[in-house]
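for the record, two folds in this file. i put them one after another cuz i was lazy. first one right below, seq on top, structure tokens after. the second one comes after a little note so u can tell where it starts
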Amino acid sequence: MAKKIFEKAGLITPPGAQTSRSEGTAKPGHEAKPKTAPGAMLQFIGQQSAAVREVEELRERLRDFDGAAVVRSIDPAQIRASRWANRHESSYSDQEFLQLKEEIRSAGGNVQPIKVRSLPESEVLNGSTPGAHFELIYGHRRHRACLELGLPVLSLVEEMSDQELFQQMDRENRARKNLSPWEQGCMYRKALDDGLYPSLRKLAESVGVDVSLASRSVALAKLPDAIVQAFPSPNDIQYRWAKDLVDAVQKDPEQVQARAREIALQSPRLSARQVKTLLTASHAEPEEVLNRSTPLPIELKVNGRVVARVTEKQPGHVSVDIDGVLLIQTQKDELIQMLEAFLTKV
């Protein structure tokens, strides 16, 4: 029955029927033109069905990209730092940053994208950073490198809330080059001051860090400026020093800050460990504290023979050279464990 309908519509030719080019035989590569209105309708329906199938196939392929962030090449001048970013300027001049910058220069751009979110139109027009259309979520060092090199920065564009931004920025920083304890504390303190989290405990739970660690970092961020400036860099201040420094400031804030200002003026600068010792020593003059340690270099002798030398080429850089002693692997392992145990107490 269907075959007869298509024959009448002119869409198929009965067996043995002869047609000439003048009667409408299609040229190679062209569809035959139906001779009747029903035929034209059936041909139209067939074409529509093919188009619908193609659309469905495209929709199916697009489902693979659902939720994917958009990757764009953006002028770094159009991207502003996050309001919670607290990297000290020294983070953009150390050897690690210079190596990152050179890698980006050699590659012609950042291979690993940074992540940004779009700024509201009101902030684009009236924001504190003219020309900024995006806010950094993470990748501040890669962004700075591209900005200084004059290269566009490859960026993932994703919309998110303030809390989502803070969480992603904190976790990314800890997964890559950790913020220093002081930088981490400044970041947490700003989030608390801005009311992003109701308490330090809620903040720590949100970003997945130990509450006591978050507490120590915030304590470092709250140290008086004079204390922070006494160190070669704020990034040198360690988590484990938080209690001693805070206790010293609370016990005698004027004396400790006066001592800190004196230390900051010394040349050459003292090591971070020396500064911490001076600031937390009770009733001791700076020279007295510094002179308590055994002067270096020294030689270590066993049975009258020198087996090791301890030297300090500059403050904070101590070398131990062991000469003429053959150690088996278990002894090497024991030596490493002893050093690790010692350094955890420094």
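(here's the note) second protein begins now
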Amino acid sequence: MSLVLAVVAAVVLAPPFGAASATAVDDTDGLVVEVVVQFDAAAEAVIVRPHSDFEELPPTAMAVQDDGTWMAWVQLPTAQNWQITFEGFHPDGEVDLSESTDLLSLGVDPVVITSEVTAPLPSQPLIPAGSWWLIIGVVLAVAALGVLAAWTFGADRTSAVADAHTEIAAIDDE
């Protein structure tokens, strides 16, 4: 497990959320981040939703602490600057959603963050673009061989049928 530096920083979110902060805990396999946010201690639940422009990870439930803050360890697949959004649930069914912030703004050390989250690579096509001409050529060659075979064997069959009709006509004439 590598040593991860912590930078003390906090972001104050719009009410009813208060100060929020994050600390990188482990960066050996992706990134594990400890996230803390101030929210009403009487709330029923608070979850943290990590996301990027390209994907949303499953939410992580947060645990209430003695000082009225909520804390969770969030497992991220990559050590990149993920966006974080908090969602608080009140006992009466009301839901509060915070504005999004990123890990760097929450105080994760920039040394741990490798780069901005990038779009996933598009999947490779099953047939490369340059191969289509080869496929079309093979299909045309097979079709040409089929036409040639039909013409060759069809001509023999037609003459054989004509010969059979001639012989039947000759037998009828006798």
